[in-house]
């Protein structure tokens, strides 16, 4: 009788151990699958019904935030922006030449302030093809209005205009962008707010009850702004794909710019 009880206990113990082994196997398998899923992309995005591109060398994205791919309107706007910035349209290598001059100064400052590298394309979109003062009074690579420039530490007036100083204006832009991100908690919206102003963007978000840039209805300029940044990124990173075969020729810096 005692022997039978011992056999039963032994069988029960073996059964429990077998179950534990199987559970452990399942957990390991589950963990492995999850790691593979995570490793396929490092894209962050807000809640959306859209399908998003995963992060890879050929994906279109801004600041590593996803671009929806199953929306015909998004696809159309991106194609239009890419066409506007290809060599056949621009007929100049000026954008690549300016990137070579500006980026070595802009990139380390963006890193210093914890801002994604893709924001370096803002000066190319804002003032890449034509420098100077806009009809509204914005000036410099980052196209600061006088009041905004002063708010973020730039001297404007009395014969001094630090909006044309590449380093100082970039630092001011970093402070502004960081503040916009703190308000919207999203880099794409921060870029849109840089163009349109945080008050107007916040009003649009509340009115539309929507905080995904790609699904929002914005004014024409702001509604195409991030697409321009994505297109600029594409042509700088893959020049030959967009017709820029001979962009290494350098030109002297513009006399309007102060790099110190």
Automatic annotation (TrEMBL):
Q: Give start and end of each Transglycosylase SLT domain.
A: 119-212
Identify the domain of life: Bacteria
InterPro entries, A to Z: Lysozyme-like_dom_sf, Transglycosylase_SLT_dom_1
The family assignment reads:
Belongs to the transglycosylase Slt family.
* Entry protein name: Transglycosylase SLT domain-containing protein
Organism expressing this protein natively:
Mucilaginibacter lappiensis
Which taxonomic lineage is given here?
Answer: Bacteria, Pseudomonadati, Bacteroidota, Sphingobacteriia, Sphingobacteriales
């Amino acid at each position: 009788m005692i022997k039978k009880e011992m056999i039963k206990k032994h069988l029960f113990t073996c059964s429990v151990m077998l179950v534990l082994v199987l559970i452990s196997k399942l957990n390991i398998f589950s963990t492995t699958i999850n790691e593979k899923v995570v490793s396929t992309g490092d894209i962050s995005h807000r809640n959306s019904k859209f399908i998003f591109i995963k992060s890879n060398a050929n994906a279109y994205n801004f600041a590593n935030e996803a671009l929806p791919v199953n929306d015909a309107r998004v696809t159309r706007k991106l194609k239009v922006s890419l066409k506007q910035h290809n060599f056949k349209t621009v007929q100049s290598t000026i954008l690549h030449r300016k990137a070579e001059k500006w980026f070595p100064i802009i990139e380390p400052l963006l890193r210093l302030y914890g801002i994604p590298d893709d924001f370096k394309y803002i000066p190319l979109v804002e003032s890449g093809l034509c420098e100077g003062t806009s009809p509204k009074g914005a000036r410099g690579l980052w196209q600061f209005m006088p009041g905004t420039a002063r708010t973020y530490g730039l001297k404007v007036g009395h014969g001094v205009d630090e909006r044309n100083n590449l380093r100082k204006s970039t630092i001011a832009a970093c402070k502004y962008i960081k503040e916009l991100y703190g308000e919207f908690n999203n880099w794409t919206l921060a870029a849109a707010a840089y163009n349109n102003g945080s008050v107007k963007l916040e009003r649009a978000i509340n009115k539309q009850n929507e905080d995904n840039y790609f699904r929002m209805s914005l004014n024409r300029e702001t509604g195409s702004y991030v697409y321009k940044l994505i297109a600029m990124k594409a042509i700088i990173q893959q020049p030959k794909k967009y017709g820029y075969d001979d962009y290494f020729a350098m030109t002297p810096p513009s006399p309007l710019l102060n790099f110190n």
